[in-house]
Amino acid sequence: MAEEEKKSRVLVIGATGRMGQELVKASLVAGHPTLAVARESAFSVPHKSSLLRSFVDSGVTVLKVSLSDYANLLGAVKQADIVISALPAAQYLEQKILIHTIKEAGCVRRFIPSEFGADPDKVQILDMDMGFYKKKAEIRRLIESEGIPHTYISCNFFMTYLLPSLVQPGSKIPPRDKVKIYGNGNSKAVFVKESDVAAFTISSIDDPRTLNKVLYLRPPGNVVSMNDLVDLWEMKIAKNLQKDYIPEEKLLKNIQDMPYPDNMELVFIYSAFIKGDHTYFNIDEGGVDAIRLYPNVKYTTLCPRLKLRPFLANFWHVFPSKVLISTV
Asked: Could you tell me which residue ranges the NmrA-like domain spans (predicted)?
C-alpha cells in the first residue's frame, strides 16, 4: 500500500476517446491512482457509458466534468499530480481553460497536452493544414509562458490511420492490383500503435529526463517509406502491384482541388511522405528518444529487428481488417 501511495495521481481528460481510454488503461497497468474526466453527455452514450463503468470496476475514479465548468474542472485538477489531455482536434484550443486551472491549482507536477502526432514545431505544412498544427503550437506557447511543467508527445501516425489501406486514401484495405505511391516513395513516416503510445507516455510522467521536453516515438522497425510498405505487401500476397507514382505537383493540385476537410488526409500524406515531416530532423536538446529511455516497454513493430524481408509474412497477418505485426 505504501508503494502505491507514492505513485503519482494521474488525471486523464477526454478519457472516453480512442487515445484517452488507452491512457487510462496504461496508467492503471503502471499502478497509478487514476482519475478519468468525461462530459455528462458521455454517460448517455451506450458504448461510452459501458467504458466508464469498466473503468470504475477497474478502480478508476470517474469524474463528470465539463471544460466549461471552471469550478468543477479546478476541483478535478486539484486531485491530480499529473494531468494528461486527450481531447480531439476540434477541442485543442479548449485546453487553454485547462491550462489556467492547472496554473491556479498549483499542485500539478506535469501536464501532457493533446498532441500525439507530428511535432507542430517541426512540420513544414503550416500554410496548408487549416490551422491544425498552429493550434497545437499555440497551446505549447501558452504552457511555456505560464511556466507549467510539461512533456509533449510526438508519435506521428497511429497504426490505425492510413496503414490498413497501405496509404491509399478513401480505402480501408490494402490494394491487390494497383497502388499509388506519393513522390519517389522514399520519405519515411512513423506508425505507432495507440496502446504503445500510451505506455510510453505513462512511462515518462515522473521521469526528470522528459521534463519540459518533447518525447519522440520513433521505433526503428516502425520508420518506413511507402516503398518499404509496398515491398512488404507484395511479398505477403506473392504478387507485384502496378505502381502509380504521384508527383508532388499532382498531389498538391489534388489537395487544392478537394474541399476542406476532405483534403486533410492528402495533406497528412504530403507532410509525411513528401516533406518527410516525421523524420527529416534529428532529435535535438529539446527532445528525447522514447525507445532509448524505455527499452523495457514492449511495442508492436512493423519490421522486427529492423530487417524487412525475413519478417514479411508477419505483416497484415489478419487480412484485410487488422494490422498487427510483432511485439518487441
From this structure: 6-302
